[in-house]
């Protein structure tokens, strides 16, 4: 069946689960790097997630989540058994009624010029993305309370602006880990960007370059790492987000190769010893045949090398021994761990709950930030480490609040994915521009010219730690879709 590698999966039609495909890619990759391809035995989705495509065209599920070089790079030539016959008629995914409806929605989507804020992109993305892509990107753990809290927390912080300050010339540029950025935001790592747009991660590379902001490259990119690096513009800064592979030789190769290719920071994800339960995503993949078998987003837990639940503080010196990139821990959720990061000589932490996709009822990064910075200041170590936040940022005022609390910068993930899914690169470009415009306006209105002038005294955070508020957020709840009912048997 397998011959010319591009043809292996070259014609497909299926609604296969995104994550098990994703995991297959990564795990196959890691095993090939370390000790050769070992077949479906190590497929994190179990052998069935490969075998269910035996003899079928898997293009439509394979392409959006795999870098183009995956098979050439990772599938042992001994497994290339022959050429695929391309004349076999296949049902094209475009022909499904769902796809026809989606194409109509795309044809009638609003113009980019009609988008005035990041929520607009989300509303359009929901209408034009495939069901699988929307489910994967938008879903979060359990009841999605933490995911909502990430946005909601900003409503519990109010401003105390100062007036009669000359704010004619506002400058929102700064440095992050020592390199310049035009605005203290970065494109954070999100997996499988090709699900949002065929060009995937490269769109973020180009848009980041255009705006002089940093891109964090995901371990689980859907474009080849080299493609993302090669798309980098002059003087552009890229950081690497790392999932620590159980096979540390694999991890070492990934890290050292990234450094060799010019990545300027190593952001180690520390909040994912196991994938959280993202039920909206699971539901979207439900079929009669897989219903019984589907236990969570982390199929084949234990045999996959992708995530290492044994990762611990004891590993940090090892990372420091294999790279001279600054080390940033991504997914820190309490001040005690920020202090440990300082003790371990890390250059940065990203306060994050993984967009609400991991531990449900993890607090918002903004709340953790407000808990953290006074402790760092009290101990006089606030300059020893850069503190970042990600999750829930949608507005210039959100960024401003984080900066006032002491964040060095903020990461933005889903909103840029939505902008990309809705309008491609021009969408991402406009989303970044909107945030720049908003932040500049907000700086003027709060009475500050430079980011160094921001401080907690410009905020009222009296109710920040109070989780019992019941604000109705019309704008974000308008784009939030309630879960659908459990499908009836036979109607899935
Ligand atoms: C996420 O979906 O939040 C990720 O970080 C990607 C991922 C997906 C499945 C396993 C590990 C990481």
What do these coordinates show?
This protein is α/β, with parallel strands linked by helices and 492 residues long. The chain is built from 18 helices and twelve strands. It has helices at residues 18-35, 48-51, 59-62, 70-74, 97-107, 118-128, 131-138, 145-152, 201-211, 225-230, 248-260, 279-284, 316-322, 335-343, 365-378, 396-405, 414-446, 474-479; strands at residues 158-159, 174-176, 179-181, 185-187, 214-217, 238-242, 266-269, 327-332, 348-351, 386-390, 409-412, 459-460. The strands form three sheets. Strands 4-5-6-7-8-9-10-11 form an eight-stranded parallel barrel, surrounded by six helices. It has a two-stranded antiparallel sheet with strand order 1-12. Helix 10 (225-230) links the parallel strand 5 and strand 6 (238-242). 47% of the residues are buried. The structure holds 3-phenylpyruvic acid (PPY). 3-phenylpyruvic acid is lined by residues 19, 22, 191, 220, 272, 275, 307, 354, 357.
């Amino acid at each position: 069946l397998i011959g010319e590698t591009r043809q292996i999966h070259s014609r497909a039609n299926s609604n296969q689960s995104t994550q098990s495909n994703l995991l297959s890619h990564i795990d196959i990759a890691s095993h090939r790097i370390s000790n050769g391809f070992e077949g479906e035995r190590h497929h994190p989705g179990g052998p069935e997630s490969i075998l269910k495509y035996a003899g079928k065209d898997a293009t439509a599920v394979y392409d959006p989540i795999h870098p183009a070089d995956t098979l050439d790079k990772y599938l042992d030539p001994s497994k290339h058994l022959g050429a695929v016959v391309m004349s076999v008629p296949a049902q094209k995914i475009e022909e499904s009624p769902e796809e026809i409806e989606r194409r109509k929605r795309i044809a009638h989507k609003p113009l980019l010029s009609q988008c005035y804020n990041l929520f607009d992109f989300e509303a359009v993305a929901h209408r034009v993305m495939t069901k699988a892509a929307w489910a994967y990107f938008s879903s979060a753990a359990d009841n999605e309370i933490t995911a909502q809290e990430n946005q909601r927390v900003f409503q519990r912080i109010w401003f105390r602006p100062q007036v009669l300050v000359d704010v004619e010339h506002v400058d929102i540029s700064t440095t992050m880990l020592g390199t310049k950025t035009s605005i203290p935001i970065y494109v954070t790592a999100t997996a499988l960007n090709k699900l949002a747009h065929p060009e995937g991660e490269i769109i973020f590379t180009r848009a980041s370059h255009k705006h002089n902001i940093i891109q964090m490259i995901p371990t689980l990119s859907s474009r080849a790492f080299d493609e993302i690096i090669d798309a980098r513009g002059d003087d552009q800064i890229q950081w690497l987000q790392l999932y620590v592979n159980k096979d540390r030789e694999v991890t070492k190769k990934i890290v050292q190769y990234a450094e060799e290719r010019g990545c300027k920071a190593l952001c180690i994800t520390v909040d994912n010893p196991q994938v959280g339960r993202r039920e909206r995503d699971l539901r979207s993949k439900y079929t009669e045949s897989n219903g019984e078998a589907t236990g969570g987003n982390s199929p084949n837990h234990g045999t996959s090398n992708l995530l290492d639940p044994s990762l611990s503080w004891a590993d940090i010196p090892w990372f420091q021994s294999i790279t001279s990139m600054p080390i940033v821990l991504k997914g820190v959720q309490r001040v005690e761990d920020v202090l440990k990061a300082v003790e371990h000589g890390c250059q940065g932490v990203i306060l994050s709950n993984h967009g609400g996709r991991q531990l449900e009822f993890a607090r918002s990064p903004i709340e953790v930030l407000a808990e953290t910075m006074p402790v760092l200041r009290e101990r006089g170590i606030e300059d020893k480490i850069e503190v970042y936040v990600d999750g829930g940022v949608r507005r210039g005022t959100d960024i401003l609040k984080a900066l006032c609390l002491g964040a060095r910068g903020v990461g933005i993930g889903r909103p840029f994915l939505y902008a990309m899914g809705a309008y491609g690169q021009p969408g991402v470009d406009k989303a970044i521009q909107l945030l720049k415009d908003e932040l500049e306006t907000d700086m003027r209105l709060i009475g500050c010219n430079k980011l160094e002038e921001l401080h907690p005294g410009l905020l009222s955070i009296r109710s920040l730690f109070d989780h019992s508020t019941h604000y109705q957020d019309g704008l974000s709840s308008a784009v939030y879709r309630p879960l659908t009912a459990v499908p009836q048997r036979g109607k899935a």
